[in-house]
Amino acid sequence: MATKLVSSRRRSVLEIQRSSGIQSIGPIKWTLAFCLMAVFILVYFSLWKGVKSSGKVVWFTATMPYAVLFILLCRGVTLEGSLDGIKYYLYPKWEKLLESDVWIDAATQIFFSLGPGFGTLLALSSYNKFHNNCYRDAIFTSTVNCLTSFLAGFVIFSVLGYMAHMLKKDISNVATDGQGLVFVVYPEAVATMSGSVFWSILFFLMLITLGLDSTVSIQILK
């Protein structure tokens, strides 16, 4: 199921089939080009007054995703089959701990979500007071990051359980990782709900704010 959806996305959205190979960039996909331009404009106005303007934007981009997560969680747990998805999420497969790929993926996730070594935290922390309690901030940030990832798991797997129930398939055949989950499988499940337009807008608005938050932080370094 996930493979078919990813293939459909590659053909209908990315139009990979129109390119003859890696040596040919192919024609411009204007819908994606306009979306990219819109992102550049948003980032520009978020940074045009430096940290003063970006600080105000971050108040929205950092808190709004939490509100959306709680809303999507409340909706997800009311769907048929959601409990099966949550059980699949919480039930550990201990033998996976012996696989090196699991530890590599976990380390990648932590480094990406916390951002140590990228310079963003160093640049932002330079605006702190000289005697700021950095130890407290580090513990708080790490804890919130872990809890956020844990909460997001409930949001995702409750909907995956619903999709598996609807398709009468095992959750392992529905779930996928990477971009396929965020841009293909989850939106496909949301599209089958009542009020799908509203839930889709909420979900993608959350993704936009998360991406904007990360992009603004990176651009501060420049």
UniProtKB/TrEMBL annotation:
Q: Which family does it belong to?
A: Belongs to the sodium:neurotransmitter symporter (SNF) (TC 2.A.22) family.
Q: What protein does this entry describe?
A: Sodium-dependent serotonin transporter
Annotated PROSITE patterns: NA_NEUROTRAN_SYMP_3 (PS50267)
| GO MF annotations, alphabetized | metal ion binding; serotonin binding; serotonin:sodium:chloride symporter activity
To which species is this protein native? Araneus ventricosus
Task: Identify the keywords attached in UniProt to this record, alphabetized.
Answer: Membrane, Metal-binding, Sodium, Symport, Transmembrane, Transmembrane helix, Transport
Name where it's found.
Membrane
A Gene Ontology biological process in which this protein takes part is: amino acid transport
What GO cellular-component annotations does this UniProt entry give? neuron projection; plasma membrane; presynapse
Q: Which residues cross the membrane?
A: 28-45, 57-78, 106-127, 139-164, 197-221
